[in-house]
Design a protein that fits this description.
The structure is a homodimer. Chain A is an alpha+beta fold. Chain A has a domain of about 200 residues: Aldehyde ferredoxin oxidoreductase, N-terminal domain (Aldehyde Ferredoxin Oxidoreductase,  A, domain 1). In chain A, about 40% of the residues lie in helices and about 15% in strands. Chain A has 22 helices and 17 strands. A six-stranded mixed sheet of chain A has the order 2-1-6-3-4-5. In chain A, helix 10 packs parallel to helix 12. Chain A is globular, with a radius of gyration of 21 Å. Chain A starts with a strand and ends in a 5-residue tail after the last helix. At the A-B interface, helix 5, helix 14 and helix 15 of A face helix 5, helix 14 and helix 15 of B.
Chain lengths: ~575, ~575
């Protein structure tokens, strides 16, 4: 069953619509971006009622195949002003797919100050006024209360906002519960949580009655594709060893070696205490402490990679799940903090507040650069998160506004943003392919839109990075459409046709990988069209000037991919 | 003598250059914009060393003709990201012209944390490290100290920044001393004071040795033009009566009647207590209190209009000079404050801090809309200015960031900005010609770029407002080039050729008004070219979406000039 659920928050009504034929092949990012481009005025106020918030599971989400149940959220971003797709794990994608929804479109806005919980079930949608206990509540408490009310983790999953989303902050993401019910998997980037807040929507509970196990058209081909895919997954060193053992944190050592690890607000690319926040150290600590700690854990049902983890305190009690490279980088080296216990607390707090750790970590770096707090002062950072950001003090509002706005407010020039969005934990002066992605992705400075770190190239050399970024961006788009986790990317190097086989088996088509690539190109074209109408062009596809001028130790590299290359990336 | 002074703040050197021939006819805004377009990379960091700050007197500045000694400051704006020209009275224009400088270009940046005073004299330029007493000092104290050092108000004048500029705030202007030495005439808009702060330049002292009285080529024509001009000035009811008697504050009643006076953050266009902050009331109070109060006062030597005033307290002691319509509107009705004594204190504080009252007043409106302070709470506002903004607390940083950034940080949608710049005190839903100017001026939402309020038209009717705004924008550009105060605009309705006569007498040319209009068109074209390269296009030439949707009482008008009209305004 393929249907679209359209929710009107202004009058709290809904309608179930058949999937338009032209959306037939579109899942995940492809369908959220198409709907936003079709229905949202590009120059609208991003936090006004004309913006729409679109959820979509990937095309293969809800199937039994590993790592396919990612969920996309699309809207016009209040952070960047561009179109945005923000991608997450957790259970929401699976559950929406199993209810037969290819997309859920939330329109309009309820009265500011009122707060609503949306309950989506097979044959009904309910608008429930949020009890007072949920208003201002963190993600963990919100999830606990709603699970108690709606039957527990076996009966439902949810997407919700924490205090950051209620306060309509640029750092606000949408928090999805994981398979254990933990409010910890974020559609983090671009302020999508602020858009949810602007609609006065506190949480969406998706009931998991699973009446409609998602199924494919061609059983034989499906089995064949799934078999190939699982074999690659089990054989590839990243998906079979590195991610399960070290999680994404394993990347930290690699990036530090390459001299691209953000250190003290991007003033250096190598952190003297990188080993203290690296994947190996994290694993050691988790194993040493035992208790509730897990080095290997899955964020969604049916994932065989299990890159997630549970970080325990000295008593073995869970502090946070999951510790990730981006967080260890932007809240560790980027702040001069060489302490995984501190980063674990930040991770927990960001999850509970519903905050994008990349954007907020970049903002803390600006705070330190401006002298508001001292480099390395973990307790000051914790206080800003838990007190100021949570309650929305003026300092907390600044912290919640993202690095671009905080930098401007504090008079800082060294601000690591593209299209007002904080760069991920790969300094583009050392990892130049990612720099190309930051510039040219319609999504702004988001590594998940096209991360070149896994490619065997000289990352310092600008040559060939435009083409490299383009191809990786296209693969990322395909994976985001289909619902695959980005960690399936490595497998596309081995046998991309496995992915088209599964697409074909599911859809009953005869597409090649090249056809999928063509569809991805058109998705990016749709997104760029929206952005163009919103006022974005070549001048915005740039790193900030200082990144072309200020050398990054230890390689003293600057970003030197030429603008002509950046501007021609999509002429292909 | 026509020369350009080029200052390098990085190594504290200077060079005097002959005026390039292609700049021959360019004064004021025309030359600042041309130099910025020629020399500043459009995508540079506005607060980085690649930006330049350009001062230029008008072409006729320094002559004996009334109201011609305005001074333009140009740069890439850190507030808008566009090219910016910000215009002011005071003595700086006159003094620079009398030193023979058609432009002063400040390049590079001194070490952050160091602060410098630049002393410009006939045959020398000195870089003097600012004494500690000046660092963080308000404009009044800074001016007093520097006047004491450099010979008093008969020997020099100055352009300086207050704490806001040192803190590189978006609301920071550059403060010029008036003929009495008062630090009170601002190049207010666009954050030009932040650019001065980014170069570590606290003040520019311009010595007034007047060795080179500015003179014209054709004596007979000059006398003829000046005579015509002065006759019109004495006969026109605005320049001979309204401005001298009521100052710009006389406009408040007009705009309130038209239903376009910003009231409680642009939620209404008529203020129930408008009479309490109007020009007539202001005049009554000043006359009643006597003492140091003046209803009529000139901001620069040789001005016959004398729209300025000095507002006294109940004891007759000066509080502020000058009280203006924009300030009475944005800090009075816009904040629900019906108290001229309060607005006078705000005016004084903004002058002393070096703050654009339009941008900062708009920001206070956002603070009230967000509930940070209560509507009408003048003492809370005063505390934010005098404590938070002055010392740069997080709240003060937000207050200094402008309405656009504060609105985003506080999650407010009703934010009255175009290109991130606060709209002046004419709500564009009721004064539609000004709405067209806000949208289409390369300067952003700045009424001085083309104020249609003086035109006898139906301001509520969208018809014809594109053409009207265009013509008024062109006249404003001509006046800004020549150095005339904007209040000469009314005279161009009577006999525009008076202005070409004076231009011709000065330059030895035979241009018509139409030729001047053509030059103004090319100035706007140059500015738009810079903006295009900086990433601005039609999508940015828009009012915020809510101004097209939210009706403005009492007329319940929305902005309804069509986009096609806006986009075709410069196709002429």
């Amino acid at each position: 069953m393929n249907r679209i659920l359209r929710i009107n928050m202004t009058d709290r009504t809904f309608v179930v619509e058949p999937l338009p034929d032209r959306y037939r092949y579109l899942g995940g990012r492809a369908i959220t971006s198409q709907i936003v481009a079709d229905e949202v005025p590009p120059t609208c106020d991003a936090l006004g009622p004309s913006n729409k918030l679109v959820w979509a599971p990937g095309l293969l989400s809800g199937t039994t195949v590993s790592s396919t149940s990612r969920v996309s959220v699309g809207c016009k971003s209040p952070l960047t002003g561009t179109i945005k797709e923000s991608n997450a794990g957790g259970e929401t994608g699976l559950l929406l797919a199993q209810l037969g929804y290819r997309a859920v479109i939330v329109e309009g806005a309820a009265e500011p100050g009122s707060w609503w919980v949306l309950v989506i079930d097979w044959d009904e949608v309910r608008f429930v006024e949020a009890p007072k206990s949920l208003i201002g509540a963190g993600g963990y408490a919100t999830a606990a209360e709603l699970f108690a009310q709606y039957g527990g983790v076996r009966q439902c999953g949810m997407a919700l906002i924490g205090p950051a989303g209620e306060l309509k902050m640029n750092v606000a993401g949408i928090v999805n519960t994981d398979r254990d019910g933990r409010a910890s998997r974020l559609n983090a980037r671009g302020g999508v949580g602020a858009v949810m807040g602007s609609k006065s929507l506190k949480a969406v509970v998706v009931m998991g009655n699973k009446r409609n196990p998602v199924s494919h058209v061609d059983e034989m081909r499906w089995k064949e594709g799934a078999r190939q895919y699982m074999r690659m997954l089990r054989e590839h060193p990243a998906t079979s060893e590195r991610y399960p053992q070290l999680g994404t944190a394993g990347t930290l050592e690699v990036v530090n070696k390459l001299g691209g690890l953000p250190t003290r607000n991007f003033s250096a690319g190598r952190f003297e205490a990188a080993d203290q926040i690296a994947g190996i150290r994290m694993r050691e600590i988790i194993l040493e402490r035992g208790g509730e700690g897990r080095t290997t854990h899955s964020c969604m049902t049916g994932c065989a990679i299990q890159c997630s983890n549970i970080f325990p305190d000295r008593m073995g009690r869970e502090v946070a799940s999951s510790m990730e490279f981006e967080t260890n980088g932007l809240w560790g080296s980027n702040l001069g903090i060489a302490d995984l216990d501190a980063v674990a607390r930040f991770t927990y707090l960001c999850n509970d507040l519903g905050v994008d750790t990349i954007e907020a970590g970049g903002t803390m770096g600006i705070f330190m650069e401006a002298g508001l707090i001292q480099w390395g002062d973990a307790s000051a950072v914790e206080h800003i998160l838990d007190h100021d950001l949570r309650s929305g003090t003026p300092l907390g509002r600044l912290a919640g506004s993202g690095a671009g706005i905080a930098g401007r407010a504090l008079g800082v020039v060294r601000v690591p943003v593209v299209k007002n969005q904080t760069i991920s934990a790969y300094d583009p002066r050392a990892i130049k392919g990612n720099g190309v992605t930051y510039c040219t992705s319609p999504q702004g400075a988001d590594h998940t839109a096209g991360n070149t770190i896994g490619m065997k190239v000289d990352h310092l050399d600008p040559a060939g990075k435009v083409a490299l970024s383009r191809e990786v961006q296209l693969v990322a788009t395909i994976l985001d459409m289909l619902g695959y986790c980005t960690f399936a990317r490595g497998l596309t190097d081995i046998n991309p046709e496995t992915f088209s086989t599964m697409f074909n088996a599911y859809m009953g088509t005869t597409w090649s990988w090249k056809d999928l690539r063509q569809l991805a190109l058109s998705v990016i074209g749709t997104e760029r069209g929206f952005n163009r109408r919103a006022g974005f062009g070549a001048a915005h596809d740039r790193l900030p000037e200082w990144m072309r001028k200020e050398p990054l130790p230890p390689h003293n590299a600057v970003f030197d991919v030429d603008n002509e290359g950046l501007d021609s990336i999509w002429e292909c």
